[in-house]
Write a structure and sequence with these properties.
This is PP4R1 phosphatase. GO terms for molecular function: protein phosphatase regulator activity. The chain is built from 15 helices and no strands. It has 267 residues and is mainly α. The chain has a domain of 117 residues: Leucine-rich Repeat Variant. The longest helix is centred in the middle third of the chain and has 35 residues. It is elongated and about 70 Å long.
Amino acid sequence: NMDSTLHYIHNDSDLSTNSSFSPEEERKSKVQDVVPQALLDQYLSMTDPSRAQTVDTEIAKHCAYSLPGVARTLGRQNWHCLKDTYETLASDMQWKVRRTLAFSIHELAVILGDQLTAGDLVPVFNGFLKDLDEVRIGVLKHLHDFLKLLHLEKRREYLYQLQEFLVTDNSRNWRFRAELAEQLILLLELYSARDIYDYLRPIAFSLCEDKVSSVRWIAYKLVSEMVMKLYMASPSTFVVELMSELVEKFCRCRKWSGRQTFVFICQ
Protein backbone atom coordinates (compact mmCIF):
# COMPACT_ATOMS: atom_id res chain seq x y z
CA ASN A 1 0.00 0.00 0.00
CA MET A 2 2.85 2.38 0.85
CA ASP A 3 4.54 1.78 -2.51
CA SER A 4 1.34 2.36 -4.45
CA THR A 5 0.62 5.54 -2.50
CA LEU A 6 4.12 6.90 -3.11
CA HIS A 7 3.74 6.06 -6.79
CA TYR A 8 0.46 8.00 -6.79
CA ILE A 9 2.09 11.07 -5.21
CA HIS A 10 5.08 11.12 -7.54
CA ASN A 11 2.95 10.83 -10.64
CA ASP A 12 0.26 13.37 -9.84
CA SER A 13 1.81 16.78 -10.39
CA ASP A 14 -1.49 18.58 -9.76
CA LEU A 15 -2.10 17.11 -6.33
CA SER A 16 -0.13 19.71 -4.35
CA THR A 17 -2.11 22.56 -5.91
CA ASN A 18 -5.56 21.03 -5.56
CA SER A 19 -7.38 22.72 -2.69
CA SER A 20 -10.47 20.49 -2.74
CA PHE A 21 -9.08 17.16 -1.56
CA SER A 22 -11.29 14.23 -0.75
CA PRO A 23 -10.48 12.56 2.60
CA GLU A 24 -8.49 9.89 0.79
CA GLU A 25 -6.56 12.46 -1.24
CA GLU A 26 -5.97 14.50 1.91
CA ARG A 27 -4.38 11.47 3.54
CA LYS A 28 -2.25 10.80 0.50
CA SER A 29 -1.07 14.42 0.37
CA LYS A 30 0.67 13.84 3.72
CA VAL A 31 2.70 10.91 2.37
CA GLN A 32 6.46 11.18 1.86
CA ASP A 33 9.37 8.75 1.57
CA VAL A 34 11.99 10.33 3.85
CA VAL A 35 10.97 8.88 7.22
CA PRO A 36 8.58 6.04 8.13
CA GLN A 37 5.08 7.31 7.38
CA ALA A 38 3.70 6.00 10.68
CA LEU A 39 6.20 8.20 12.53
CA LEU A 40 5.12 11.32 10.62
CA ASP A 41 1.44 10.49 11.11
CA GLN A 42 2.04 10.19 14.85
CA TYR A 43 3.75 13.60 14.87
CA LEU A 44 0.97 15.27 12.86
CA SER A 45 -1.66 13.90 15.25
CA MET A 46 -0.16 15.95 18.10
CA THR A 47 -2.40 18.89 17.19
CA ASP A 48 -5.52 16.85 17.94
CA PRO A 49 -7.17 18.52 20.98
CA SER A 50 -8.06 15.13 22.44
CA ARG A 51 -4.34 14.33 22.72
CA ALA A 52 -3.82 17.36 24.93
CA GLN A 53 -6.54 16.13 27.29
CA THR A 54 -5.43 12.50 27.47
CA VAL A 55 -1.65 12.54 26.89
CA ASP A 56 -0.04 15.90 27.77
CA THR A 57 -1.51 19.37 28.08
CA GLU A 58 1.60 20.86 26.44
CA ILE A 59 1.86 18.37 23.59
CA ALA A 60 1.05 21.07 21.01
CA LYS A 61 3.92 23.18 22.36
CA HIS A 62 6.31 20.23 21.99
CA CYS A 63 5.02 19.74 18.46
CA ALA A 64 5.68 23.43 17.64
CA TYR A 65 9.16 23.26 19.16
CA SER A 66 10.12 20.30 16.95
CA LEU A 67 8.57 21.57 13.73
CA PRO A 68 11.67 23.27 12.20
CA GLY A 69 13.66 20.07 12.76
CA VAL A 70 10.94 17.96 11.14
CA ALA A 71 10.76 20.40 8.22
CA ARG A 72 14.52 20.23 7.71
CA THR A 73 14.44 16.44 7.80
CA LEU A 74 11.61 16.17 5.26
CA GLY A 75 12.97 18.93 3.02
CA ARG A 76 11.10 21.76 1.36
CA GLN A 77 9.74 19.41 -1.30
CA ASN A 78 7.63 17.78 1.44
CA TRP A 79 6.43 21.02 3.07
CA HIS A 80 2.89 20.14 1.94
CA CYS A 81 2.94 17.40 4.61
CA LEU A 82 3.44 19.97 7.38
CA LYS A 83 1.68 23.08 6.09
CA ASP A 84 -1.74 22.35 7.61
CA THR A 85 -0.21 21.37 10.95
CA TYR A 86 1.86 24.56 11.01
CA GLU A 87 -1.19 26.75 10.34
CA THR A 88 -3.13 24.91 13.05
CA LEU A 89 -0.37 25.51 15.57
CA ALA A 90 -0.04 29.17 14.51
CA SER A 91 -3.67 29.75 15.46
CA ASP A 92 -3.56 27.68 18.65
CA MET A 93 -5.41 29.17 21.63
CA GLN A 94 -2.34 28.76 23.88
CA TRP A 95 0.03 31.72 23.50
CA LYS A 96 2.96 29.50 24.48
CA VAL A 97 2.44 27.48 21.29
CA ARG A 98 2.32 30.61 19.12
CA ARG A 99 5.33 32.04 20.97
CA THR A 100 7.36 28.91 20.21
CA LEU A 101 6.60 29.26 16.49
CA ALA A 102 7.36 32.99 16.56
CA PHE A 103 10.85 32.33 17.89
CA SER A 104 11.62 29.84 15.11
CA ILE A 105 9.85 31.29 12.06
CA HIS A 106 13.13 32.74 10.73
CA GLU A 107 14.72 29.27 10.85
CA LEU A 108 11.79 27.78 8.98
CA ALA A 109 12.10 30.52 6.33
CA VAL A 110 15.69 29.45 5.63
CA ILE A 111 14.57 25.85 5.20
CA LEU A 112 11.64 26.64 2.90
CA GLY A 113 13.23 29.28 0.67
CA ASP A 114 11.86 32.63 -0.49
CA GLN A 115 8.93 31.39 -2.57
CA LEU A 116 7.32 29.23 0.11
CA THR A 117 8.18 31.82 2.76
CA ALA A 118 6.36 34.56 0.87
CA GLY A 119 3.30 32.38 0.30
CA ASP A 120 2.98 30.43 3.55
CA LEU A 121 5.05 32.09 6.29
CA VAL A 122 4.51 35.81 5.68
CA PRO A 123 0.77 35.63 6.57
CA VAL A 124 1.64 33.82 9.81
CA PHE A 125 4.41 36.34 10.52
CA ASN A 126 1.96 39.21 10.03
CA GLY A 127 -0.42 37.58 12.50
CA PHE A 128 2.33 37.26 15.11
CA LEU A 129 3.11 40.98 14.75
CA LYS A 130 -0.38 41.77 16.09
CA ASP A 131 -0.32 39.14 18.84
CA LEU A 132 0.42 39.39 22.56
CA ASP A 133 3.77 40.85 23.59
CA GLU A 134 4.89 37.35 24.65
CA VAL A 135 4.48 36.28 21.01
CA ARG A 136 5.62 39.54 19.36
CA ILE A 137 8.97 39.38 21.14
CA GLY A 138 9.69 36.16 19.26
CA VAL A 139 9.46 37.81 15.85
CA LEU A 140 11.13 40.99 17.14
CA LYS A 141 14.24 39.14 18.37
CA HIS A 142 14.78 37.73 14.88
CA LEU A 143 13.25 40.54 12.81
CA HIS A 144 16.41 41.12 10.80
CA ASP A 145 16.92 37.38 10.20
CA PHE A 146 13.43 37.08 8.72
CA LEU A 147 13.22 40.33 6.74
CA LYS A 148 16.56 39.78 5.01
CA LEU A 149 15.08 36.66 3.38
CA LEU A 150 12.25 38.64 1.72
CA HIS A 151 12.37 40.49 -1.58
CA LEU A 152 13.05 44.22 -1.34
CA GLU A 153 9.50 45.37 -2.09
CA LYS A 154 8.00 42.94 0.41
CA ARG A 155 10.59 43.98 2.98
CA ARG A 156 9.73 47.67 2.56
CA GLU A 157 6.12 46.98 3.53
CA TYR A 158 7.27 46.37 7.11
CA LEU A 159 8.76 49.86 7.41
CA TYR A 160 5.27 51.14 8.18
CA GLN A 161 4.86 48.66 11.05
CA LEU A 162 8.15 49.19 12.90
CA GLN A 163 6.67 52.13 14.77
CA GLU A 164 4.12 49.77 16.33
CA PHE A 165 6.87 48.02 18.30
CA LEU A 166 7.16 51.13 20.48
CA VAL A 167 3.72 50.30 21.87
CA THR A 168 3.52 47.34 24.25
CA ASP A 169 0.85 45.81 26.45
CA ASN A 170 2.92 46.81 29.48
CA SER A 171 4.81 50.12 29.28
CA ARG A 172 7.28 48.79 31.87
CA ASN A 173 8.45 46.19 29.38
CA TRP A 174 11.60 48.16 28.52
CA ARG A 175 13.43 45.07 27.25
CA PHE A 176 11.03 45.08 24.32
CA ARG A 177 12.21 48.56 23.31
CA ALA A 178 15.84 47.62 23.92
CA GLU A 179 15.46 44.66 21.56
CA LEU A 180 13.86 46.96 18.98
CA ALA A 181 16.89 49.27 19.12
CA GLU A 182 19.24 46.30 18.68
CA GLN A 183 17.29 45.05 15.68
CA LEU A 184 17.18 48.50 14.05
CA ILE A 185 20.99 48.58 14.07
CA LEU A 186 20.97 45.36 12.04
CA LEU A 187 18.16 46.58 9.77
CA LEU A 188 20.21 49.57 8.59
CA GLU A 189 21.95 47.35 6.04
CA LEU A 190 18.64 46.26 4.47
CA TYR A 191 17.19 49.68 3.62
CA SER A 192 18.08 52.68 1.50
CA ALA A 193 19.20 56.05 2.88
CA ARG A 194 15.77 57.55 2.22
CA ASP A 195 13.98 54.71 4.01
CA ILE A 196 16.33 55.03 6.98
CA TYR A 197 15.76 58.77 7.20
CA ASP A 198 12.00 58.63 6.70
CA TYR A 199 11.11 55.60 8.83
CA LEU A 200 13.94 54.52 11.15
CA ARG A 201 15.14 57.98 12.21
CA PRO A 202 11.92 58.96 14.09
CA ILE A 203 11.97 55.67 15.99
CA ALA A 204 15.64 56.09 16.88
CA PHE A 205 15.07 59.61 18.20
CA SER A 206 12.16 58.39 20.29
CA LEU A 207 14.32 55.64 21.80
CA CYS A 208 17.03 58.19 22.63
CA GLU A 209 14.54 59.82 25.00
CA ASP A 210 13.36 56.58 26.62
CA LYS A 211 12.84 56.56 30.39
CA VAL A 212 15.17 53.57 30.82
CA SER A 213 18.91 54.20 30.48
CA SER A 214 19.63 50.74 29.04
CA VAL A 215 17.33 51.51 26.11
CA ARG A 216 18.88 54.96 25.61
CA TRP A 217 22.43 53.59 25.48
CA ILE A 218 21.53 51.21 22.65
CA ALA A 219 19.69 54.05 20.90
CA TYR A 220 22.82 56.24 21.04
CA LYS A 221 24.71 53.52 19.20
CA LEU A 222 21.82 53.19 16.74
CA VAL A 223 21.91 56.91 15.88
CA SER A 224 25.70 56.89 15.47
CA GLU A 225 25.46 53.89 13.12
CA MET A 226 22.70 55.71 11.26
CA VAL A 227 24.94 58.76 10.77
CA MET A 228 27.69 56.51 9.41
CA LYS A 229 25.31 54.72 7.06
CA LEU A 230 23.89 57.97 5.67
CA TYR A 231 27.36 59.50 5.41
CA MET A 232 28.49 56.64 3.16
CA ALA A 233 25.35 56.92 1.03
CA SER A 234 24.91 59.17 -1.97
CA PRO A 235 23.66 61.88 -2.03
CA SER A 236 24.79 63.24 1.35
CA THR A 237 21.60 65.30 1.82
CA PHE A 238 20.17 62.93 4.40
CA VAL A 239 23.21 62.92 6.69
CA VAL A 240 23.37 66.72 6.66
CA GLU A 241 19.71 66.96 7.64
CA LEU A 242 20.13 64.27 10.28
CA MET A 243 23.09 66.00 11.89
CA SER A 244 21.29 69.35 11.81
CA GLU A 245 18.37 67.74 13.60
CA LEU A 246 20.69 66.22 16.20
CA VAL A 247 22.15 69.64 16.94
CA GLU A 248 18.75 71.30 17.11
CA LYS A 249 17.00 68.58 19.11
CA PHE A 250 19.73 67.60 21.57
CA CYS A 251 22.76 69.91 21.47
CA ARG A 252 20.64 73.03 21.94
CA CYS A 253 18.11 71.36 24.22
CA ARG A 254 17.07 73.38 27.30
CA LYS A 255 17.35 70.28 29.48
CA TRP A 256 20.77 69.02 30.49
CA SER A 257 19.71 65.46 29.72
CA GLY A 258 19.17 66.38 26.07
CA ARG A 259 22.60 67.99 25.81
CA GLN A 260 24.10 64.95 27.52
CA THR A 261 22.42 62.74 24.90
CA PHE A 262 24.17 64.72 22.16
CA VAL A 263 27.55 64.18 23.84
CA PHE A 264 26.95 60.44 24.21
CA ILE A 265 26.00 60.10 20.54
CA CYS A 266 29.16 61.98 19.54
CA GLN A 267 31.15 59.69 21.81
